[in-house]
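User: Here's a chain of 113 residues. Predict its fold as tokens.
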Amino acid sequence: MITLSWLIIVTVLAAGLALADGIIRLRGSRNNSILAIAEVAVAALMLVSAFTALPAPFTTFFFALALEAVLVLLLVLPGRGRKGAPTLIIIALVVNTVVVLTSAGWLQIPGMG
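Assistant: Prediction complete.
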């Protein structure tokens, strides 16, 4: 049975946004295709880890940190994309930062966690 909490909802939202951005990047130009593949893989694993129990080092926090690194690299590295392409990355980065900080215990939001 899955207990629905705000942290799971925010985690699914962050992973879903990153997954959508990665798929859009893979369908578009081939400039940062390695990072787009990494983004899709990590976001999918983060979704899986939110609902199933994986072995010890592969927790949602681990995948959220990896996704954070990939999103920062995608934002910082230059790429030829659409005019509004960074918007989805920035939204996913902000939501994923909330997941990382809440999972680490550095951010206390009442009702989350």
